Amino acid sequence: MAMRPRRSVLYLPGDNDRALEKAKGLPADSIIIDLEDSVAPANKEKARAQATAAIHERGFGSREVVLRVNPIETEDCAAISMRTAEGALVTSSITLGAAGNASRFRATFEHVTLTSSTNPYQIGAGPWTFEASDPARQAVIDAVVASVAEIPHRFAGQFSDMHARLTGGADLYLPSLEEGYHSVELMTAIYASARNGQVVSLPLRADHPLSDGWLLAGAEVGG
């Protein structure tokens, strides 16, 4: 992916609602919304709420929007930020040591937001919620969701798909070898980015340093 030129960058505090609104009409290539140093401790919560609303309203057009967050204060945390070829933003975060266990998947589109339950270690498990961006569209979205047949979850669904493939039926979610390769390639890029602190673009070149494995140089696998 080609590097995107940034001729001008606008930096503004997340708790300044007037600045957030004015930024929508300024011709900057990139907009950085700050939740850290420029925001007083008493305004952190307000800044988070305003920044989230401003980003979800999509009033900044095609300009790049960057969110500067506070340092992670919990040990054993991981965060991944990705941008797809189509321009969508994908984020993943992991926090260990919390009071309870929870997993959640959330996808935000132009007209609807999809949110899974928080069942631990079952990412994508139901029940799901489908919330329309425009309340007037909620009934239409509810009707579409209701028309989709229930399918078996987890291993039951996987083996149902395997049976369908082997008996000439139509499977739903069995990955192809190409899709499996892309999954391994993505994990390789994540390892590489975590180690060198740099943005990694896909696809990876054939001679990438981690093409032969993810182990650190000199590491040994115990028996």
The average pLDDT value, as a whole number, equals 83
Count of β-strands: 8
Helix content: 25-40%
What is the 3D form? globular
Distance between the termini: 40 Å
How would you describe what is shown here?
This protein has 223 residues and is of the alpha/beta class. It has 5 helices and 8 strands, in the order βαβαββββββααα. The strands form 3 sheets. A 3-stranded parallel beta sheet has the order 1-2-3, covered by helices on one side. A 3-stranded antiparallel beta sheet has the order 6-7-8. The chain has a two-stranded antiparallel ribbon with strand order 4-5. β1, α1 and β2 form a beta-alpha-beta unit. The chain is globular. The model has no long low-confidence stretch (mean pLDDT 83).
Short description, anyone?
The protein has 223 residues and is α/β, with parallel strands linked by helices. 28% of the residues lie in helices and 18% in strands. The model has no long low-confidence stretch (mean pLDDT 83).
SSE blueprint and pairings:
Layout: E1 9-13, H1 17-23, E2 30-34, H2 44-56, E3 64-68, E4 77-83, E5 89-95, E6 106-108, E7 112-115, E8 129-132, H3 138-146, H4 154-166, H5 177-196
Parallel strand pairs: 1-2, 2-3
Antiparallel strand pairs: 4-5, 6-7, 7-8
Which key features would you list for this structure?
single chain, 223 residues, alpha/beta, three-stranded parallel β-sheet, three-stranded antiparallel β-sheet, 18% strand
